[in-house]
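Worked Example 4.2. Consider the chain below.
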Amino acid sequence: MKLSIRHGLASSAGIKEHNEDACGFLLPDDQLLATKGAVAVIADGMSAAENGGAASKACVQGFLSDYFSTPESWSVKNSAQKVLAALNRWLYGSGQREYGTNKGMVTTFCAVVFKSNTAYLFHVGDSRIYRLRGEDFEPLTRDHRVQVSDEKSYLTRAMGIELNVDIDYRTVSLKEGDRFVLLTDGVHEFLSDAEIKHHLLTGGESLDSISQKIIDGALANNSNDNLCCLITDVVQVPNKDEVEFYRSLTQLPFPPSLGADMIIDGYRIVREIFSNKRTEIFLVEDEVTGEQMVLKAPSVNYSDDPNYINQFLHEEWAGRRIHNPHVMKVIEQKRPRQFLYYLTEYIEGRQLRQWLNDNPTPSLLQVRDIIGQIAKGLRAFHRLEMIHQDLKPENILIDSDGTVKIIDLGSTKIAGIEEIATPLDSNPLLGTVNYTAPEYLRGELASNRSDIFSLGVIAYEMLTGALPYGKTLTPRNLKHLRYISARDYNPEIPIWLDQTLEKAVRLDPLRRYEILSELTHDLSQPNPAFLRQERLPILERNPIGFWRGLAILLLLLNLWLITLLV
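Applying the procedure from the previous section yields the following structure tokens:
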């Protein structure tokens, strides 16, 4: 069962000549409904603005258009906030340019995004969002308005007043039967909550007619403003039935046992490239075009494991949305599939692990080049709000031209997909031992800094042949581990470069590099902060190491004196 929403609305200029309120609702097709949701929007152009009506219409139309144009992998919050920030800057710039004032194009704004079993609320100004659940009727937003006197008040926040705007954001769970109501102040200032609730409960089945009755009630109470009412009903929330969910995952059967010269959907298998208990990978040739590709098929060992099948499907979904020369390309298939598998480009090359075995002492220039290319690939993930989660030398290929590519997207975490509720137990994949970020081990949420940790470990290993903490990280030893200077293994490494590696692999993610470009910059050019630290006396630069060394020296001196006395 998919999410089902119905809506109704009414809007009126009231006693005014022009209607500067605007509202809209968009229910997309099934694909976007699952990944982006349905959207209800309302806006009220500020009466004191030069062109509040244009501002409100631009916000409603712009949000409904631009929100659904953001990547499907983005979370609702990220998508909406980026769109609203752009709309606000456009309103502010237009107001300044056309009217020379920050009150040129100003409007309030409220939106509800219905996705899976959650409602995401965005609000600025004094329009309101209410929810009726059974007999409980409550406002879900707080007005951004200050009352100066009985006759005078003003908005403290709205779209278009300033270059940057602070948007209130919250989420609430969805239940079948929930009724959300979006109102402009021309309605809610002239109808009490009890009167609005009465109309909602007694107005009949048509949401359009209920919306009109609410507006008529406000007009009867002498509303002197434009009026807008938008009502949405949650008819059905996605089903969490495990049997039904498993049936949806297994619409395509697992492939049969595959071997050389077999043909599957027009692709002839040339040879097996790799196989383990989870995955089978084959080199195939398209019988029509002669193009060589890689076919990745799930292992029949997991044919009854919905978590595994779900993750396999997500792997292809993510790969088809990442377009970067440093990430393995997933090929979109034009012909129908009879079985569950997907195709990728064929890359002739070797794993970074094999490259390291062949080049045990790479130059700093080579390390910078490879890490830089990996970072470019990772950046493509992070821009789409994806986290690779399993970065390691075995998941990196270097082709014959020296181009580095990230492969194996099986552990990729996708923010937008994570918001879709399923009956599965979402046990996070923790990457691979020695490259797993410590926050996974602590049961904390992953972020792009988790990938930066793994990349830092790879850089450290390339320069030293060792691990930055000397042993495998476990939940038990995290509190006791200390970073081992890369200079202990390779004295030719400059102190500033060692400081860069240390920051990349810090156990606390908040003390790591925040973005990849910071790490790659510091790997290429000395960070002035690290250079200053390099010039500090050892006591200030590394007090723990200094006192530890001094204690050992004094112990040895005492032992020598005792030996002399004896």
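Residues 76-99 form the longest helix (24 residues). DSSP finds 18 helices and 23 strands in the chain. Compare this with Example 4.1 before moving on.
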